[in-house]
Amino acid sequence: VQLQASGGGLVQPGGSLRLSCAASGRTFSTYAMGWFRQAPGKEREFVAAVSRSGGPTSYTDSVQGRFTISIDNAANAVYLQMNSLKPEDTAVYYCAARTSSYFSTYARDYGYWGKGTQVTVSS
Predict the structure, then answer these.
(1) Does an H or E element contain 96, and which?
(2) What sign does the dihedral 30-4-115-84 (CA atoms) show?
(3) Is 32 helix (H, G, I), strand (E, B) or coil?
(4) Using one digit for the tens of pLDDT, what is the confidence trace for 12-27?
(5) Which pLDDT score is estimated for 116?
(6) Between vectors from CA 56 to CA 51 and to CA 62, what angle results, nearest 5°?
């Protein structure tokens, strides 16, 4: 599967962005999907994940209640709605696919990655 993330940009603190990840290739509905991010000088970290076909989800504590991950199997896409953005959310965001029914919070469990999209939260 090939993944392409988009939707990043510059936003003020408290603002919102919606990231999209378009998938092509093998049947999208067979994958669990995740979003990860990497800030300058830091390790790549887990943000959110969803099991196949929009099943159970998971979020890192720092985004719980502010971010929402969702899947549209008809559109072969996964989304990350980000609200109440904070400067510490600034990072390159990556979408990833895992050939499993269930999500994982570990980057090593994802075999497919898209190019990242930059999110900058600044006034």
Answers:
(1) strand 91-98
(2) negative
(3) strand
(4) 999 999 999 999 876 7
(5) 95
(6) 100
Question: 49-78 pLDDT, tens per residue?
Answer: 999 877 899 999 999 999 999 998 888 899
Amino acid at 67: F
Dist CA 117 CA 80 (whole Å): 12
| Cβ atoms 32, 52 nearer than 8 A | yes
Q: Name the amino acid, one letter, at 7.
A: G
16's tokens: 């919102």
Written as six digits, the tokens of 66 are: 């502010």
Is residue 63 within 8 Å of 18, Cβ to Cβ? no
The upper half-sphere exposure of residue 31, i.e. CA atoms within 13 Å in the direction of its Cβ, equals 28
